[in-house]
Design brief:
The complex is a heterodimer of chains A (217) and B (205). Chain A is α+β, with helices and mostly antiparallel strands. Chain A contains eight helices and six strands. Chain B is 44% helix and 12% strand. Chain B is globular and about 55 Å long. Classes of the chains: A alpha+beta (217), B alpha/beta (205). Strand 5 of chain A pairs parallel with strand 3 of chain B, so a sheet runs across the interface.
């Protein structure tokens, strides 16, 4: 969706302000919110793409005014409610009043190391031969899906070149809608900055894009 | 618990609204049996004390010192990095980007906050914030200026937007005057920003 998360090329946010000797967390609540998002995600009721889309659905004014852990927290609360894990009333009261769901994979303290080491690879067996190979010229489609997509607005409708073929990976546009992994070929596509921004430049921009985002040139 | 000016924990009454909200949510999720508080503690400890940019610095120092390892990194960064013990969540599919005197690589995630956790830990706030995410692709040299990095005019900037699950680690140029240095000593020159591409490796002087 053309939501507030799609920031590439926007203007007016001011300079990047790096913090010297930045701590990993800036407040105790950030520690707890970070860990809660990971632990609740591990329950398996939704996948990474659904989680990202929940954050993208935050209204733009709120998204842009929120810190990143606030964005994570809002996204998680949305999904907890939508998936019936907690009710709005329970959030309000802070006390359980509805029965808890069963059949969930609760991550215990001694399981964390294994869960993190395993990760969640997105590569999948390829469903069909790849359409493109390194060196091929492609154009990104000019699409504006209302659901989740990983084709940024700034990269739509532009000519580029395939530089790497990464194999087939879970397709976020489908996976975010619970339509299965729908594996599609994933490519790194190189764009000339001059093509994307319409002014002279020697620089290059790369994005990792799935086959359905591309058409042959 | 460290104090930071926003979130003083003096018995609960002075917690900020968001701190109170998170505390209440955690209690609720624990009471409902969805979360083991011990797991939260391990998660926090892992990313606060065990995983961080010094891991990535070891990868870079080895790439500078060992041509065979550098070649492996170019061919299969995930496996080469895993051989040093760094793997898993948010680093399942790694790619190493080697800077040259004429090519400077810089990594961003314009859509969220994708970052190679097993080698760099969790991203700094600026990496996740609108100024960097918006400008890295349209004005990378301006962003480098914010980090006091200026490149030769004939150098090419290559920006990598992490739009899928591929995670990028920049291998900065090895500083001059470091011939014969041990990997351990070299690693001390490798900053987090150098591995994102918003900095250069430190000079030995």
């Amino acid at each position: 969706m053309n939501g507030p998360q799609d920031l590439g090329g926007m203007m007016g946010f001011g300079p990047v302000v790096p913090e010297t000797d930045e701590p990993v967390f800036h407040a105790e609540w950030e520690r707890r919110a970070f860990a809660l998002v990971l632990a609740i995600g591990a329950l398996g009721r939704w996948n990474l793409d659904i989680a990202r889309h929940a954050r993208e659905r935050i209204p733009p004014a709120t998204y842009l005014a929120s810190s990143y852990y606030e964005i994570w927290l809002r996204g998680m609360i949305t999904l907890l409610k939508e998936n019936g894990l907690i009710t709005a009333e329970e959030i309000e009261s802070g006390k359980p009043s509805a029965p808890a769901q069963g059949n969930l994979r609760i991550v215990k303290g001694d399981m964390v190391e294994g869960v993190l080491a395993k990760g969640g690879p997105s590569s999948r067996p390829s469903p069909a031969p790849a359409l493109y190979k390194p060196g091929d010229k492609v154009r990104t489609r000019n699409i504006h899906p209302t659901g989740h997509t990983r084709l940024p607005r700034y990269a739509r409708g532009h000519a580029g070149e395939i530089v790497t073929v990464h194999g087939a990976h879970v397709f976020p546009d489908s996976s975010s809608q619970r339509k299965g992994d729908d594996p599609q070929w994933l490519y790194t596509v190189r764009f000339a900055a001059s093509e994307v921004w319409g002014r002279p430049s020697r620089d290059k921009i790369h994005a990792d894009l799935w086959e359905p985002y591309l058409e042959a040139l | 618990m460290p104090h930071d000016g926003h979130d003083h924990d003096h018995g609960g009454s002075e917690l900020s609204p968001i701190a109170l909200r998170v505390k209440a949510l955690e209690s609720l999720l624990v009471e409902k049996g969805y979360v083991d508080p011990a797991a939260l503690d391990v998660l926090i400890e892992t990313y606060e004390t065990k995983v961080g940019p010094r891991d990535g610095a070891r990868v870079v120092a080895k790439a500078w010192s060992d041509a065979e390892f550098a070649d492996w990194l170019k061919r299969d960064a995930t496996a080469a990095i895993a051989s040093l013990g760094f793997q898993g969540r948010q680093g399942e599919h790694m790619v190493a980007l080697f800077n040259t005197p004429k090519i400077h690589n810089m990594v961003v995630c314009t859509l969220c906050s994708c970052y190679p956790w097993p080698v760099l830990g969790l991203p700094p706030v600026w990496y996740k914030s609108p100024p960097y995410r918006s400008r890295a692709v349209i004005d990378p040299r301006g962003v480098l200026g914010d980090f006091s990095v200026s490149l030769p005019a004939d150098a090419e900037v290559r920006v990598w937007d992490s739009t899928a699950e591929i995670r990028y680690l920049v291998i900065p140029l090895r500083p001059k005057g470091t011939d014969g240095w041990s990997e351990k000593r070299l690693a001390e020159l490798v900053t987090r920003d150098a591995m994102i591409g918003t900095g250069l490796a430190r000079s030995p002087s």
